From TrEMBL:
<keyword id="KW-0489">Methyltransferase</keyword>
<keyword id="KW-0808">Transferase</keyword>
<protein>
    <submittedName>
        <fullName>TRM7 methyltransferase</fullName>
    </submittedName>
</protein>
<dbReference type="GO" id="GO:0032259">
    <property type="term" value="P:methylation"/>
</dbReference>
<dbReference type="GO" id="GO:0008168">
    <property type="term" value="F:methyltransferase activity"/>
</dbReference>
<feature type="region of interest" description="Disordered">
    <location>
        <begin position="59"/>
        <end position="83"/>
    </location>
</feature>
<feature type="compositionally biased region" description="Pro residues">
    <location>
        <begin position="73"/>
        <end position="83"/>
    </location>
</feature>
Length: 83
C-alpha cells in the first residue's frame, strides 16, 4: 500500500525536524521514535481513498472479463512512434 499526505499552504510547526525515518515499517522504530520530541514525534494521520477491488497494475488479468460479453481486440488509437 502506498500513501502520501497532500498539503495546501503547508507551514511546519516551530521545532519540527523533517526525517525520512518510517517508524511504521522499521522494527527498531521504538529506538528512533524515542529520540524525537515535540512536533517531530507526531505521525500524521491520513485518509485512504479507494479500496483493493480495483485492478492491480502489477498483475495480469484474463482477456475475457465478462462471460456475457465476448472479448474483441481494439487496436491502440496510435501506434508507438519509437518501438
Amino acid at each position: 500500500v502506498e500513501a502520501f499526505v497532500v498539503c495546501r499552504g503547508y507551514s511546519p510547526p516551530e521545532g519540527y525536524v523533517p526525517t525520512m525515518d518510517n517508524p511504521l515499517l522499521d522494527p527498531d522504530a521504538g529506538l528512533a521514535l524515542s529520540q524525537l520530541s515535540g512536533p517531530s514525534r507526531v505521525i500524521v494521520p491520513f485518509v485512504a481513498c479507494g479500496d483493493l477491488s480495483a485492478y492491480d497494475p502489477d498483475r495480469t488479468y484474463p482477456l475475457q472479463l465478462d462471460p456475457q460479453k465476448p472479448y474483441s481486440y481494439v487496436p491502440p488509437p496510435r501506434a508507438p512512434h519509437r518501438p
